[in-house]
Amino acid sequence: MGIALDSQRCWEVTMVKAKHAVDVLEKCPTGIRGLDEITKGGLPRGRSTLICGGAGSGKTLFAMEFLMRGAMDYGEPGVFMTFEETAEDLAKNFVSLGFDLPDMMSCGLIATDHVKIERNEVEETGEYDLEGLFIRLGDAIDSIGAKRVVLDTIEVLFSGLSNATILRAELRRLFHWLKDRGVTAIVTGESGDKLLTRYGLEEYVADCVILLDFRIEEQISTRRLRIVKYRGSSHGSDEYSFLIDETGLSILPITSLGLDYPVSTERISTGVPKLDTMLDGKGFYRGSTILVSGTAGTGRTSLAATFADAACLRGERCLYFAFEESPSQIIRNMGSIGMDLARWVKKGLLKFHSARPSLYGLEMHLVTFHRGIEEFNPQVFIVDPISNLSAAGTASEVKSILTRLIDYLKMKKISTFLTDLTHFGVSLERTSEERSSLIALIDTWLLLRDIELNGERNRGLYILKSRGMAHSNQIHEFLLTNQGIALIDIYTGSGEVLTGSARAVQQAEEKASELIRRLAADGRLRVQESKKEALEAKIAALRAEFDAESEELHSMAEEERKRQAVLAEDRLEMAHLRK
Amino acid sequence: MKAVSPGKGKKAKTDSTEESWNLRLYVTDQTSKSITAFANLKKICEEHLAGKYRIEVIDLLKNPRLAKRDQIIAIPTLVRELPEPLKKIIGDLADTERVLVGLDIRPVSG
Which CATH class is domain B20-103? Predict the structure, then answer.
């Protein structure tokens, strides 16, 4: 049993050692957008990484960006040894990524060496080694204290020199030498038919291998990256889309694989007060995803723009991706319904991005979304419409793209508003079937529907679902007025549902009868008024009479008094006289 | 850098109708390949270019910058500077036939 115990303990020790090895593998951050996330820190420090791919797949640009960012962002000087391009071509390539090579060289951050091998120049006459190469590389590294090295592409040696045995031995020696020097190296290699690279470089560069793929499908180009191998580290093993533009490479970052995003209870206005009312009186949840489906010309863009307008009014930033109309067209059209979007654009709160979706591959769209969001940092994100994106990929690809996009948006608590073009005549069931995977991700689903009645077509809006809140289930008539969107209760009148001109007629009738009633009431009031006047006149007359009588009475009394006074006087006189 | 002219003390025969050969051998110090190459080169020159050659030996360990300037990756490398055009040969020059072809020397018969 002693032996068995021993092996058990050995195994345990090995496992502990292995775990430690994984933990202590140091990584060299590349600074390439998205790459450090999927490699969990960057490339293996002090080791060589093989970047392989077909012509035009981006290997050289990848290597360049690694070197440039190493110098600019991490202060690590680098050596670029090229076997194919001249110094001028190299500088031009760097410029295409926005890097100033001559400047970097004069600062002592980058050193380059162009190794020229021309087969017809050379005749191999006996034993030799590639020490000259080592001397050049060593000199370049020492001249600037380089920490990073690029060899692009060393395979050219195979086509220039015919002694494969010597070549292979020297390559093996080179990679050991690089490791001894402690530099982090990138080696590029052209894809082979059976092997990863044409000359089997993966045999020597075994620590990390990344494959770049570039293909054109139906006139749309797509770029994909895959980490084939990364010894000693866990890594994302999927194929990731990436794009190359004037700022370098952008690889799509990982989004949350779980469903654990933070949720908000804050509510934001839709921009249409009546719609807010229909949504439990408060509007959408912040950070939720809203979809408006509708047939052409029903007003999806107007709803989207109204939502944008409301956001900007609150001082929030809105990023609007327009795939059908140009931004200036949208601004002009919204002007006709009373919205001034131009002012938000000027203030920098509203940013438009427009493109024909069929122009790029799906991954390019997704990367463009990501970059737009990262750069602008909006609180509201709009895509109008998403339906065109389906033209750029298969159904499952579109589903994958949208899922990842919405995941990302929810993580960032960005309120998202998507519009979708549905086709007239297609039933709601069919639409929701086609879009079932998308609808599962949506929190609030609004439908703009044409209502055809009595030879007339009006628009109706209804809320098909809105998670987490009580919402109206009534259709409302959707109108574009010159003061914005109006939602009108479908007129029930005598229990019927009426829209458009039928409603208008009914409303007019109601108004008319209302008027008549009022007029009648007015008439009665007037009669009463005249009665009152008559009464008042009577009262006035009576009073006048009374006053006259009182007056007479008063004067009679006065006379009597005078007579009594005179009599009294006479009596007094007579008394006097009688003495 | 060492320059070797034909024979010590001997006056170099300069024939105005004959060309002058300037050869440069790139080596790394005294490694065996370098020594072998130099020996082979001297032998070939004495035999086929007697009196009209000049060999310059460049030790890249002492002058690493010259490797880049002159586009040298293999050691040893022999460069024929004159007569023009420039020609490059790599290896320890053990294969005389190849060397002659590479340098475009018409072998001295006999």
Answer: alpha beta
